[in-house]
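User: Please predict the structure of the protein below. I'd like the answer in structure-token form so I can feed it into my own downstream comparison script.

Assistant: Understood. Taking the following sequence of 216 residues as input:
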Amino acid sequence: MVDQKMNTQVFPLTAVNQSTKSCEESATSQSDQDLQRKKRIKWAIYIVAFLVFQILVITAFSLTVMRFKNPKVRLGEFTVQNLTAGTQTSPSFDMNIAAQVKIKNTNFGPYKYDSTNATFVYRGLTVGKATIPKGKAGMLSTKKVSVTVNVNSDALPNTSSLGSDFNGGVLTLNSHAKLNGKVTLMLVMKKKKSPEMNCTMTINLSTKAVQALNCK
């Protein structure tokens, strides 16, 4: 009995503790590595999302702010003053037109334009001319220019077609203008833009008022 107890192998307690501690350190190290890997994945997702967002912002910026758009020129308020009209047998007309020219600039920068003329035409012949002075339309705004022009039939070589219009009680005129200028973006980027105005107006000879106004 004594021999059996003497032959029983006893393991040192220190070795067991070291083995347990090694396992715990290994598990802790693995946990730290997993945590670091998750953090790297999270940061990678953030970076990719940020880059995608930046690309979308730059694309939207290029398609809107950095895009040169053609301004629009139109006739706005339009009134006929002092209209003198002849008869069907002796047709003629003489009137003053007070009009408002609208220059709409949809760019993210100013549009500067040179002085130009707005012509009023009857059946292809110029019957009046107004000057649109040199100016500037601010970004995303509409410049309004008031003009007054005398329109008369003195330049018409014959009045046969005018007589038929008088028979219908209306007078149809066309107005055309072309602006030459530059749009400036970001203070340094410039591009030439030449918008045109083409309007058709119908004047009622009996009421001496504008019956219709259409611009393209």
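That's the full token string. The domain at 72-215 is CATH 2.60.40 (Immunoglobulin-like).
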